[in-house]
Write a structure and sequence with these properties.
10 helices; DNA-binding; homodimer
DNA sequence: TATTCATTGATAGTATTACTATTATATTTG
DNA sequence: CAAATATAATAGTAATACTATCAATGAATA
């Protein structure tokens, strides 16, 4: 149980921020509005100066919360993974049957995001969009190894580790559970991206298709092993 | 045959460059050295000024070949996909059996890159590294849709389309051939990235593992369909 | 042979970005 | 009320991502 609900309040590594944005009104406005703005103009076009203008605050005040926009992106995406991890744990916790559990997990991970009213200043739908379009930029950097050591990606890694365990529970003989877990998580984001920008490269056009595709992929692979 | 060998000389969309870098000595040095430099310091740290310094040329001269570093990245990655497409077509062309053909295709796409002496000024191994670490930055932009219309991603899309057809030939009933094709291509790059930076998230640590993993995934999924 | 033409190099200049530093002002708390 | 804290305002800096102009060179051509 100790790891269960590990991120309910969605606790984010202290090192990512200078001052906790949850601790003040300005901090919450920074989070709320940065989501809208990054979603709108993209991470490259986004600057603290523009954000300050939008929230009627000053650039220098935003720097008191985050060292730079890269750290802010790490904060937002960590929050997203923590939130998704909570959905995953909550929805699968009571399921005893390992196959049913995995099926549910794949559904949670690959379904389109729906708004969660529990966190009023965060728009999860737009945040999911940001994760689709910007997440890989947060780790495809030359600083990845030091930042990883600092623990900036723990929630993401823990999420995949949980998923990995569920795959393992279904078929302990399967040789690639971690790869399958990371492929489904990353692949799901990618299929949503393709749907919007390179539609000829995906078959997941209708709601539910991405879930069906990955469920099919996982269970044929795992069942085949069990039968073989 | 018309599309076969479509990219042997590795022809890249004219709109990506101002002046064809293949047409001059300086152009080739720009390509050669930019590969070394981006691999070394990363795309974010890379500038035309630094490149000019390294090749003993001037920043302004490089701008006569490429509008900006984003276009240069598009050029390099397009070249890579064209080169890989050539490998794919060449290696699978003579195979009649559809399953054997697909197996070979997965191998070509997921295996580690080896140096090709046919293109002396291009280091394919480093270029593959650049594709792993930087490719997604070339399309995760706000300009994606206009750039896609301009045809900046045709080689990449054609590559996946060929792969898609091979999957289809093995199992025409399978509902997600394009998704499977794009998942394997993108997923393979991702597994190589994980191996180096988040090793706990992958099982592909030894040479050949990535190929085995995706071959297993594809054939269990497709065979299951055929038997079901 | 002289010219002109294309390529490259050198220099300067601009707007923007990504900050840092300092000081002022407002608000909260002891 | 004093002190501490948070935020705002302003200024300044180095680097980036260019654009523009002009000079030097060398090759092709009249």
């Amino acid at each position: 149980m100790e790891r269960l609900f590990g991120s309910v309040t969605i606790k984010i590594n202290d090192k990512i921020f200078v001052k906790d944005p949850q601790s003040s009104d300005l901090g919450k406005r920074i989070i709320e509005q940065s989501i809208l703005m990054i979603n709108d103009i993209g991470f490259e076009g986004f600057t603290f100066k523009k954000l300050g203008l939008q929230i009627g605050s000053n650039e220098s005040s935003i720097y008191r919360y985050f060292e730079n926009k890269h750290k802010l992106l790490l904060y937002l995406t960590s929050w997203y993974w923590g939130w998704l991890e909570y959905q995953l744990v909550f929805a699968t916790n009571s399921i005893a049957d390992t196959s049913e559990k995995l099926k549910k997990a794949i559904e949670i991970i690959t379904r389109p995001t729906v708004q969660d009213s529990a966190f009023s200043h965060i728009n999860e739908v737009l945040l999911n969009n940001i994760v689709i379009n910007e997440y890989s930029k947060s780790y495809l950097t030359k600083e990845i190894d030091t930042e990883n050591k600092e623990g900036y990606f723990v929630i993401y890694k823990r999420m995949i580790e949980r998923f990995n365990e569920m795959i393992n529970a279904v078929d302990s003989e399967y040789k690639y559970p971690s790869s399958l877990a990371s492929t489904i998580l990353e692949g799901s984001l990618h299929q949503y991206f393709l749907k919007d920008h390179f539609p000829s490269l995906t078959d997941c056009h209708e709601k539910g298709d991405t879930t069906k595709y990955f469920t099919d992929l996982a269970f044929h692979t795992l069942n085949a092993k069990q039968n073989g």
